[in-house]
Amino acid sequence: MIHLENVQKTFTLHNQGSAEIPVLSGAGFTVNPGECVALSGASGAGKSTLMRMIYGNYLTQGGRIMIGDVDVVTAEPREILNLRRDTLGYVSQFLRVVPRVPTLDVVAEPLLRVGTPRDVAEARARDLLARLNIPERLWSLSPTTFSGGEQQRVNIARGFAHAFPALLLDEPTASLDAMNRAVVMDLIHEAKARGTAIVGIFHDAEARAAVCDREIDVTAFTPGMN
Amino acid sequence: MTQSGQYNFAYLDEQTKRMIRRALLKGLAIPGYQVPFASREMPMPYGWGTGGVQVTAACLVPEDCLKVIDQGADDTTNAVSIRKFFQRTAGVDVTEQTTASTVIQTRHRIPETPLREGQILVYQVPIPEPLRFIEPRETETRKMHALAEYGLMHVKLYEDIARHGAISTAYAYPVSVEGRYVMDPSPIPKFDNPKMEMAGIQLFGAGREQRIYALPPYTRVVSLDFEDYPFDPMRAEHPCDMCGAEDTYLDEVIIDDAGGRMFVCSDTDHCTARRAAGHRGRLAATEDAA
Amino acid sequence: MSTPLLQVRDLHKFYGDRLGCGDVNFDLYPGEVLGIVGESGSGKSTLLNCLAGHLAPERGQVLFDTRDQGLVDTLTMSEPRRRLLARTDWAFVHQHARDGLRMNVSAGGNVGERLMAVGDRHYGNIRAQAIDWLDRVEITADRVDDRPSAFSGGMQQRLQIARNLVTGPRLVFMDEPTGGLDVSVQARLLDLLRGLVREMGLSAIIVTHDLAVVRLLADRLMVMKSGHVVESGLTDQVLDDPQHAYTQLLVSSVLQV
Q1: pTM of the entire predicted model
Q2: Domain of A48?
Q3: In this structure, are A183 and A173 located in the same domain?
Q4: Would the CB atoms of C122 and B162 count as touching at under 8 Å?
């Protein structure tokens, strides 16, 4: 489902003496449907960078990143938009939303975008928010005023609302209490059972061991670190 | 070509009359279209009918019989002075009778007696552009006329209804001419709008704004309205206190300082003719007795 | 895949010898929102005005997917046709509401104008639609007969949007739609715009110098400098991993809150 081949990334800082910083080279791996793969390596090894490249958030200088039959490296912006809408989900560490939008709508939105009827989408959103222990009185409020942990759970609910065939998870269990962490792990297991291919970054070793089928050490792709 | 020895016939020089006649012919050929013309200085202030006077001057021939009315009346300052002006500069016959006249210059009324073929009605126009108060740019209004984009005219009527519950525009009520140009009929009461589909020729002259437009006989003239707020030619609900007419446009006259009032025909010629024929209104008898 | 709604090819606009904008090429697909960013004088407003038919470019094509004839070059189409497009399938939201509103006409009349322009002659319908649209932009029905001069800046801007969207356009041009509004009003307006774009399936081209605005509204971004497009791509990609020196400068110059 997710297939990387000889992926290259360099940052060029034009305003700082045109410094060229090679970040990744020769990165390659495959994630099959129903599989969960953890990216590992020391801080600064390029785990987040690689995730962002797979999502199309960072440009890739060389190689291929195949999500299904779309190559993110060469795809047109609107192909990536379609990919993000239908196929590829991303749970980032921080929730970024338009002010004023109620939590329930924030969570239901990915479903509405793929044409799910509003009642079905909202039912799914309610279910997820309830499972992630967001008190019901908060559902009609904007998540911008929530605590950090609540925001992260809203973010996770949103990420898991639509059954994406491919999913990227950036620290999904960080700063969650044990009860909510278990819920997130359940969600990941359910997604795997549905056949979702997952790439994740987990600093939480216990969680990683519980949900991941294997690890990929990003350090191997980092120039100057091997 | 001098008539009196001091002036050209009908005051204007022949080149000017030719220029105005060309504008008039163009206006008649394109009903409702505002034809620019080189308006001349006239020996009266703007707003006193300089446009109408120039059109009348360009139409008059020595055989004509001229009638001049000001809001229906033949005997107000404006009407009297223009009538005298043409008596002096053209030497034409003048009359107060609609039926006897061949050319009628009017300010803000159409005579009650229907015009017949061959008669000419000349309007004095202050502001010829019906879209002016909503769209101040002349470049834009010209384009709107050229492309027949007249939605904006209805915005004005919409505003009337929104503010007053009905289309409160009571005079200068915009009309659509032959389904093409939207035209300002000059500040005649909307009561007169239906009369614009007539046998006579109607010519409009705006002196300060330098525009001439025209309606040939029997031109289709439709007052703009909404489907649910149809055009209504409003009229005061009284008979004329002088002649008893119930189908004429009335002036309201305050007659004392105790709130007394009377309604009389604004068309003085029409009212006089009716009284001569024996019609009497509420207050006519007392007046005759006096 | 579907045909683009708008195709821009090799567009050049000069002011005398000076370049307004040049070499502009892009496609806009139905439902897409394109942001154009750049500093003052970078040519972004010039470009927007060329696209909307307010300025005549010296060279190039602006092809619009018309309902009846498919892609037609709007620069060479007849003026009546272009003006018809401008009041039906297109909308233009000005930075200053007073440029886009009739200040001496009531809110209802402002919204109703486009309906009357396309031939609606039923007062009751026009008014009902106006009130419906005022409601959608969060202006209460009791303000329908007030003039825009009695409205706050944010309300005027929302009224302008209602006035533009009432005929169900397919392409909206916006020139700094949130400029001059304080931040809380901006947020409300952005939220509203986003909802309307989503709900109506609108395509939009938004010119702004505010990167936060494009991050929220735009799917794609074009960065302009000195009349040229120096970088384009997915909005989050351009903002998070800018490639061109100017874009890097622009992104790094934004103050963090």
Answers
A1: 0.86
A2: 1-87+165-226
A3: yes
A4: no
